[in-house]
Amino acid sequence: MILTQCAVCATELGLSLGKKCGRCSTRYCGPECQVQHWKEGGHDTLCKKIKKAGGAEQYNANEKYTEAVFHAAAACAEDTKGQTCFICTQALHWKTKEGLVRGCACRGTAGFAHVSCLAEQAKILFAEAEENNLDDDVIYERFSKWYACSLCEQEYHGVVRCALGWACWKTYLGRPEEDYARRMAMNALGNGLFEARVPKDSLSVREAELSILRRVGAPEELILATQSNLASTYEFVGRREEAATMLRDVYSGTLKLYGEEHRETLIAANNYAASLETLQRYQEARSLLRKTIPVARRILGESDRITLTMRKIFATALYEDDSSTLDDLREAKTTLEESERTARRVFGGAHPLVLALKGSMRLAREVLRAREAPEVLQTADDLAAHFDSL
What we know:
Protein name: MYND-type domain-containing protein
Organism: Pelagomonas calceolata
InterPro entries: NLR-like (IPR053137), TPR-like_helical_dom_sf (IPR011990), Znf_MYND (IPR002893), Znf_RING-CH (IPR011016), Znf_RING/FYVE/PHD (IPR013083)
Strand order of the largest sheet: 1-2
Strand content: under 5%
GO molecular function: zinc ion binding
Distance between the termini: 84 Å
Keywords: Metal-binding, Zinc, Zinc-finger
């Protein structure tokens, strides 16, 4: 259940506390709130409608999906003007009348689509893989269409990722808790809410996901991945010490499970380093990254998102540290300039990583100029003093 609060007073109920409406499963902290909702909150007129939609969880997901699609299309309206969907070839969706979105690395006239078309495409591809009992790698690749572009293969970001997250969740939420698709849908929703900067909702989803995985005895690698996502959300809402502790444990567990050259280990190292940098534990962050960046460059490549993110964190830990030398600041500036060029070429100028690198590059240049200015002034003073003595 993603609905973890009382529908009236918003008391946190977790996954099992409180009671539910016997007809539609709307959740309450107790009978008082349930009675109030029926008499004063309009539940008497909505109850049958919610039940017809499939229950409170399904009804909520449907409503949230519609809202998310509207916001995604509105956010992309300027970029998508005059374009058509690469799936249905129409500007407006024939049924929903929704506008187009594009939140990947496609350029030119490629990559424009309706969220509904992307969702239907992903649903069909995954269903085909399930029906034909295809192997796990194929099933995972098919499921990735819920969050990654089938043209450029880059993951969607921002409000587009959020809309697809709700689309995915509303499609599979009716399956059993231990079902692969349901678990992955909950993960997709948590990631989408995080991408759209809705941390409170993302936190609720990720805490529920971790609780369910533990209850059904999920493999360790799934627990570690979910803990990593949860820690990122902790950090976003200001619970930074908790995040760092959890990310340290995730990195340690992932290193033991996979070894230092596995992508999951490098992701865990990147996340832990980012947390250390946020806590201003700069030397610890740099020490970890000096060890892992060469591995990432060798295993993942120079243009991989994780490699580029590691280099950004490393450079930030240099220019934000007051004890850094001028050589350190010059290294930070060069690192960010190289990374920004690569990221812009691979992901396009509107990608969040590219924008983040641009911002860090500007700050690194400002810090370097500020530190170089006194040195230049000192040299000028020394020259003046020298000539005065002649």
